[in-house]
Amino acid sequence: MLFWGWRHCSLPSVYNRICDMNSRNHVKQFTDIPNVGPATAADFKLLGFSKPIELVDQDPYFLFKKLCELTAQRHDPCVIDVFIAAVRYMRGEPARKWWEYTAERKAHLKK
Questions:
Q1: Residue 46: which residues within 8 A CB-CB, separation 6 or more?
Q2: Do 31 and 37 contact (CB within 8 A), yes or no?
Q3: Each residue of 40-87: pLDDT tens digit?
Q4: Residue 30 burial (CB < 10 Å; 0-12/13-18/19+)?
Q5: How far apart are CA 104 and CA 81, in angstroms?
């Protein structure tokens, strides 16, 4: 059974993920996302986003590259960690501290 907007999901995992994503519709401001403060919220707006839900289909590494291009400066790579945390949270994953993504980012950038 699946009730949109509720946490009563008992279908296969793909449907559970859709339900979890739907539960993020309550996030109205970027600063409502864990790890996102005013500076990161401003970055998301500079990148062209107006609502947090728009982050669901985004690639955090591409967002970082685009941010560096738009501002004509190289930002601290930890910004990628914050972007990963925000995107994953908006996709329905549990909130995690941004630095928990540092090892993943370093491994990804080594490729």
A1: 67, 70, 71
A2: yes
A3: 999 999 999 999 999 999 999 999 999 999 999 999 999 999 999 999
A4: buried
A5: 9
Amino acid letter, 69: E
DSSP string, 43-74: HHHHTT--SGGGGTT--HHHHHHHHHHHHTSP
Please state the domain extents for the chain.
Answer: 26-110
Taking the C-alpha atoms of residue 25 and residue 108, their distance in angstroms, rounded to an integer, is: 29
Q: Which backbone phi and psi does 109 adopt, to 5 degrees? A: -75, -20
Could you report the per-residue pLDDT of 74-92, keeping only the tens digit for each? 999 999 999 999 999 999 9
Length of the chain equals: 111
